[in-house]
Amino acid sequence: MEQTEEATSMASDDVVFGLWMIGLVTVFMPIYLRFLYCLYHHFKNIAAYQIMLHNGIPYVVQIAVEWFFGVFTAASFQPPMLFNKVCGGLWNAAFHAAVFNLLVLTVNRLVVICNIHSMHSLFRGRPQHACIVLQYVWGLAMFASYMTPQITIAYSLKSHAFEFIGDYGSAAAQFDLAFSECVLLVSALIYGAIFLFILKTRGQRRIERHELRILINIFCLHLTFGSLIAAYHLQPMFWSSHQAAGVLNLAIVVKCGSDPLCVLATNRSIRRRFLGCSDNVVAHPVYHLCLVSRPMGIWKPFGGMKSSKAVASRSRAESPGELFGVCELKAHLVEAEKALGDLRTHVEALKKLIEPRMMPSLPVFEKDVTRMMNSIEDLLVRVREARRQNCGIANSSSSASCVIQEKKTRKVLPRNCLKGSCITGGQPSTCVMNPHEDEGTLIYSFTICQLD
């Protein structure tokens, strides 16, 4: 009779813990995936956000494993040991990769905030990718160790949590704890150094707001991780029953799922894109480049968007007498040639006006501008190659064609038109560009005029 009651009680506990695990992961997973998508899609040029992206990927793997075992728990089903061992190893290897990433994020804040020039290259290009790859190599190494017969991480239906078993299971658990505490200690020392640096240089050096915002985001990630480690140490003092491990396992799910919420609460830029409130193209905090319907292009080198919405639209011809599409391509070509020269001018001006110590992200700005100039040059090469091959392009709505000719000089036309070589219905037409100034922002609008 007592055994029956005990079995019934355990089955009831299984359902409760299983439903909690399923419910928490079901709520947090879409939020986390949307958060990672925003980091990947909108903040490709900011190193700290790209590193933060790879902090979230292991946690997504971890809570995905928790969801499957939540289903098993609710059904009171103990999975086969081999499956249990592989999933448990993957679960803990993802934890190690995420903790390693936290250390990389902390070092990134130290380099950027304290402006350590000799280490700036560590978070650009291949070195940055190497740091990201290294975290996954560390995770794979831990996963390989968990596949040995001496160490097994398996989900226990009785305790509703993953447990270390095997000859060296206890040692592996102690290593996990020591590694986590070591990362927290090193991070705390680095944060102390950053705080002292900010106090010391206050009034002498202005730190960019977005860099401080990222610092707060990463500090919140460490705070949730530190809270989990503290709960591990304190839970025997308040909860000594067999359910303590299950409650701590639920705390792990909550910790993983709350990380994006903490970042969204403290970072307005990510929050707006997460909620879909902004369509602006994010290139770099120093400058923005966008396309709008009319005027066609806006270049504002020192930040800020003139338009609240940025959309790239393709003009359509409404009648045979109007020339859009192909002729507009020529206008874009002329604009690209001029923008290429403007970009070089802006880079040289920034080098003279902005001292490196006042702007640690200048090398990143130069890299982005160089990439943009290379893209424009590639566009020019493709268009000129098409011209050399005598490619004809047809406009389906107006039956208009445009023969693109290379023009390196400007010809004075009415309203300062730049000449293209376009033909519409036998009547010569010209693609024109009318540059004008509007409150410090250079705006280019494209119209059509007829030649006499």
TrEMBL record:
Coiled coil where?
A: 333-389
**Ranges that cross the membrane:** 15-37, 57-77, 89-112, 133-157, 177-199, 211-232
- Keywords attached to this entry: Coiled coil, Membrane, Transmembrane, Transmembrane helix
Please name the Gene3D superfamilies in this protein's record: Rhodopsin 7-helix transmembrane proteins
- What protein does this entry describe? Uncharacterized protein
Q: Is Membrane found in the keyword set?
A: yes
Q: What species is this protein from?
A: Steinernema hermaphroditum
For the keyword Transmembrane, the answer is: yes
